[in-house]
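Bumping my old thread because nobody answered last time. Still need a sequence for this structure:
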């Protein structure tokens, strides 16, 4: 038994050594100490509370809650199979996705094969991968360790999906680029229905430091039953449009603005007129950073998010907790990022969110959380 175990260890070491010499491992961690300075009592999950509230998502719990947390760990292996094929496999340990025993869970974040230059200037990618929704804006924002970009944060588009995409250049000089993708719309989980999501993006780089994107996706969903006409089914698909523009001067400053508009067909029911209308969501994010010193940057961001721009009838969509879920909210982030080492950053930051009053009730009290964020690369 001991000999078999020793042989197994040697074989594993050989395999690992061979893989390591041909591929590349990488990893990074987002960790915090946070303290909830103020909260509305309704943030208790058993009472009325704004759903997908940025503060409750980033730093959970009621007023005076404090904790150390490892918010996210990525462990990635990239491997060049040949000149034409490459692959990525990434594991993620996410505090919001606990295992069955309540401990931090681990899941597959990326698992894809890339067929490089399948035709001139374009790559074909199959598997679990990032959709093209906000990869450009997230890279310019540069502080994913502090917060997600607005469409990711508000659950408009998942950061991963499982499907097939084609990405490449529209012009040889790289000024105009594109991505099209068809996927399950199940994030990195197995598919549960026949409906798919269709993505498209145009990425424009008119000059070296300026970049813009034009984005659209169509999320097919099962039809819903008409409450007032027996046997009639209604389309419930979702269309999302987004624009982004950003400018950066390396090691000096960055500035970006991102907005989206999402339409859910027949998402609102008017119980008085006995009719349906679209539910429209709107979001705008403005962010920037300024380098005070080469290793010290000030960061600031402002988001305005409207989960629903209409309030019609007395449907449960706008009653009780659901009414709070659909309130407009303003989200402000301020912080200072200090790069202790090229692979280690310490980022003190403040998260502040305010809410408009839900229909017929007072607005929840604003929320504020102070955080001490640590970001480091360990491979």
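Sorry it took so long. Here it is:
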């Amino acid at each position: 038994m001991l000999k078999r175990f020793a042989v197994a260890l040697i074989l594993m070491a050989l395999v690992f050594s061979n893989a390591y010499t041909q591929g590349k491992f990488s990893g990074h961690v987002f960790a915090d100490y946070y303290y909830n300075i103020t909260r509305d009592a309704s943030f208790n999950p058993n009472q009325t509370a704004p759903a997908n509230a940025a503060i409750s998502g980033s730093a959970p719990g009621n007023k005076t809650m404090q904790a150390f947390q490892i918010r996210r760990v990525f462990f990635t292996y990239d491997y060049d199979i040949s000149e034409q094929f490459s692959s990525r496999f990434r594991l993620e340990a996410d505090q919001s996705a606990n295992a069955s025993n309540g401990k931090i869970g681990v899941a597959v974040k990326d698992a894809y094969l890339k067929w490089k230059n399948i035709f001139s200037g374009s790559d074909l990618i199959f598997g679990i991968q990032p959709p093209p929704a906000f990869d450009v804006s997230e890279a310019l924002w540069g502080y994913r360790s502090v917060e997600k970009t607005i469409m990711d944060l508000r659950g408009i588009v998942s950061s991963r999906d499982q499907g097939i995409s084609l990405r490449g250049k529209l012009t040889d000089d790289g000024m105009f680029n594109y991505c099209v993708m068809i996927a399950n719309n199940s994030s990195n989980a197995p598919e549960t229905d026949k409906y798919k999501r269709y993505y498209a993006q145009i990425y424009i780089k008119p000059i070296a430091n300026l970049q813009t994107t034009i984005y659209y996706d169509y999320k097919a969903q099962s039809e819903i039953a008409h409450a007032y006409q027996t046997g009639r089914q209604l389309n419930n698909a979702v269309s999302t449009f987004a624009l982004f523009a950003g400018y950066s001067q390396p090691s000096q400053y960055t500035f970006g603005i991102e907005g989206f508009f999402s339409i859910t067909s027949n998402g609102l029911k008017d119980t008085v007129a006995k009719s349906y209308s679209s539910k429209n969501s709107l979001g705008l994010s403005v962010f920037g950073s300024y380098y005070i010193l080469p290793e010290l940057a000030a960061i600031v961001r402002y988001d305005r998010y409207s989960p629903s721009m209409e309030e019609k009838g007395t449907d449960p969509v706008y009653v009780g907790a659901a009414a709070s879920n659909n309130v407009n909210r303003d989200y402000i982030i301020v912080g200072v990022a200090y790069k202790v080492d090229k692979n280690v950053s310490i980022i003190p930051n403040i998260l502040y969110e305010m809410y408009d009053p839900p229909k017929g009730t007072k607005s929840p009290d604003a929320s504020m959380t102070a955080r001490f964020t640590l970001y480091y690369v360990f491979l």
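The chain is about 10% helix and 55% strand. Let me know if any region looks off to you.
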